[in-house]
Amino acid sequence: MLKAGRFPFFPDNVQYWFETKRAFGAASYGASEFGEVMATVNRITSGDPDGWYTEWTATAERVLAEAESQIERGHRVSARDSYLRATTYFRTAEFFLHGNPDDPRIYNSYQKSIAAYKACCVLCDPPVLPVEIPYEGTTLPGYYHRVDESDTKRPLFIIHSGFDGSAEELHGEGAIPGVERGYNVLTFDGPGQYGPIHRERLPFRPDWEKVVTPVVDFALTLPGVDPDKIALMGISLGGYLAPRAAAFEKRIAALVANDGVYDYGIANLGGNVSPEQLPVIESMIRAPEAPELDAKLEEEKKSSPVADWALTHGMFVTGTKSPREYIAATLEYHLRNGIAEKIACPTLVLEAEDDLFFKGQPQALFNHLTCPKTFIRFTGEEGAGAHCQVGAHRMAFARIYDWLDETFEGM
């Protein structure tokens, strides 16, 4: 495990280092270039969100310009690769700006990231199909990644991210590894996630089955889907959201919680809350006024880069107005009261040894499951101990898809 002060970049700021490692990790499937990431972060001062935006945007614009030159000259593969990397860099640029949801830079980066990715999709073989999934009077953005353009029935892996990921990021974090192994893959953003929160400020909701059920309905209209072999994976906070959905949506035949989350609210409270303490703490958090708690949360934001980002981004994606209001909202995100026990399909729970955010949560989820279940722990020694195996995607998806292959073979 890398300790503070030993990070190759931003040794005083674990959150900036994690996002840097995330950008490095995107290189596993071509969504970044090691040298481009290193050159970019070398120009950034730790803890400077404006500098972070400026330098990542400069890299993104340079790579995008190269992509457009390449496509004009007929170099389709080169342009595809450059568009994909530009997608990552534009998304990364606005990551630390969410303290002001009206900052125009946020939406400028979002729009450019989406446009670059859709340009990449057209150049893939077969093309990746952008989709809009009907949902409660609006639509959820997603992408259908196919093995080929035939109607051959194949297992379908539905994948969504979590607190701060995107359907575009899932190109390499699940979709391409699946297509290589004979799976069709449907990625999407739900409420609170990248597309819906940027497009229409649609916030998160805890009852994620209300999101996944219309996605499964839509998936069954797509060509090449075996309705008996539909798997679901949620990443990061998705490690709560996907299990919550699978507890009620019984068309899910296999589930992956990457990494597992049993109680998001308790995780936000530091993880050391007993069932007896919880009602008292909930009452305090939900009180009309709690000046001491408000002051403590503000102090936490000042002293911890992780807390500062998590509380700021949390307000952005839940539509809440204060850190305490955000923490109160997260108390609804749990699998207690028998919800985890309702999951019936085979389930794979992943754990990262050095997880910054959900320490102990994967084991808590696993302990409550009564379905066929498997637990895989990724370690720092093997280079995969970061949250959601950031920096070790080829290793992680080999294990995930091997489990899924073996699970579906037994059906």
Report what the structure shows:
It comes from Terriglobus roseus. GO terms for molecular function: hydrolase activity. Keywords: Hydrolase. This is Alpha/beta hydrolase family protein. Residues 177-294 form the AB hydrolase-1 domain. 46% of the residues lie in helices and 13% in strands. The protein has 411 residues and is of the alpha/beta class. The chain folds into 3 domains: 9-123, de novo design (two linked rop proteins) (Up-down Bundle), CATH 1.20.1440.110; 128-263 and 333-411, 3-Layer(aba) Sandwich (Rossmann fold); 267-330, no CATH class. The chain has an 8-stranded mixed sheet with strand order 1-2-4-3-5-6-7-8, sandwiched between helices. α9 (238-248) links the parallel β5 (225-235) and β6 (254-258). α3 packs antiparallel against α4. The longest helix is centred in the N-terminal third of the chain and has 24 residues, at 49-72. The protein starts with 13 loop residues before the first helix and ends with a helix. Mean pLDDT is 95; it is low at 1-5.
